[in-house]
Amino acid sequence: MQVMPSMADDLARVEQRLLESVSTTDAFLTEIATHLITAGGKRVRPGFSIAAAATALTVDAPASEEAVTGGVAVELVHLGSLYHDDVIDEAELRRTVDSVNARWGNLKAILAGDFLLARASELAASLGVEVAGLLANTIGRLCEGQLLELQHAFDVNRTESLYLRSIEGKTASLLASSCRIGGLVAQVPRDHVEALTTFGYSYGMAFQIVDDVLDLVASAAQLGKPAGHDLEEGVYTLPVLFTLEGPDGAALRSLLGGPVDPDQRDRAAELVRDGDGIDRAIRRATDYADRGRAALSTLPASAGLTGLSAAADYLLDNVRAAAA
After folding, report:
1. CATH number of the domain bearing residue 299
2. DSSP β-ladder status, 93-94 and 97-98
3. What is the DSSP string of 264-279?
4. pLDDT digits over 117-147, tens only?
5. CA torsion through residues 38, 166, 50, 80, sign
6. What pLDDT, on a 0 to 100 scale, did the predictor assign at position 237?
7. CA distance 121 to 76
8. Distances (CA, A) of 70 to 39, 173, 217
9. Banded model confidence at residue 322, pLDDT cuts 50, 70, 90
10. Rounded to whole angstroms, how far apart are CA atoms 213 and 269?
11. How far apart are the first and last CA of the chain?
């Protein structure tokens, strides 16, 4: 996302508040809860909350305390979900460091993830009933999206509709809420809030499709893991589903439907890259990004608007470069 002049300072405030929000009198719990915070991250979600709130301003200015609090809340939800996801995936690394479950075990990782969600809920409650209810609903949707994905693991009959429902829950819902919270705490008009929410949702859908494309086209060095990792996990994403519908569908189907070895994974990824599934998925991501940009076009000019618009452009530039 294009950084507004004040954004770097605002995100530094987010970092400090993240650490403060999970500090406890129990040193062990604090160590586990801060593990991924100190590992870094892009902080896209708090950035969106702050930028969305800044669409209410005519000049660039430091974010309000409410906007920073909203950003911290959504980031804690994201981090809590990562703790749980790594348990589900049996992941050993996250952000170049040991995953929490790899270092301290699954039980402690689950409880620490729950702790982060509880802290997020506490912060949301301080921003009012609507924000508290929104974040609670979003946590529920995250669970629904992840469960739907698990339900259809290794399912070669997974449909595009089921895929879209899953990424709506596990990715788009939190990005939509990030933008919506920014609008709510800035007290912008309701149609302004709805436009920001539409942008966040559309960006989230595009973001996840792009991430799924990159899993198939980026190099292992770029990804930090072998290309086609989703295929190993039995998560058949949009490019794969499109390829299953095409002329190479039978060959791809014969490789999938269960655990794959590295050779099968690489052959399946090659079939997807050789077909039109990648291009079709990129077009779908572009459609979502365009919907988000259209929603933003209804809003008055502001530094926040410029930052959000640049985020959609940057996302698609990355995937086009990777797929070229």
Report:
1. 1.10.600.10
2. antiparallel
3. HHHHHHHHHHHSSHHH
4. 999 999 999 999 999 999 999 999 999 999 9
5. negative
6. 98
7. 9
8. 21, 15, 35
9. low
10. 11
11. 22
Asked if residue 2 belongs to a domain, the reply is no
Q: Report the pLDDT averaged over residues 238-250.
A: 97
pLDDT attached to residue 82: 94
Contacts of 55 (CB under 8 A, 6+ apart): 182, 183, 186, 188, 192, 196, 299, 300, 302, 304, 305, 308
Distance CA 59, CA 297 (A): 18
CB count, 10 Å around CB of 271?
20
Assigned domain for 1 exists: no
Could you tell me how far CA 180 lies from the centroid of its own chain?
A: 15
The C-alpha atoms of residue 316 and residue 58 are separated, in whole angstroms, by 28
Q: Where are the alpha helices (DSSP H) in the chain?
A: 7-21, 27-33, 35-38, 44-54, 65-89, 100-104, 106-125, 129-151, 160-167, 173-185, 190-217, 220-223, 229-233, 238-245, 249-255, 262-274, 277-296, 303-323
What residue numbers bound the domain in which 196 lies? 7-323
**Dihedral angle of Cα 297, 302, 308, 313, to the nearest 10 degrees:** 70
**More confident site: 35 or 95:** 35
Q: Count of domains in the chain?
A: 1
The residue assigned the tokens 């436009």 is 195
Tens of pLDDT, residues 275-299:
999 999 999 999 999 999 999 999 9
CA 143 vs CA 77, 78, 120: distances in Å: 11, 12, 16
Rounded distance between C-alpha atoms, residue 312 and residue 177, angstroms: 17
In sequence order, what are the beta bridge partners of 272? none
Per the rule left: phi > 0, alpha: psi between -120 and 50, beta: everything else, 41 is left
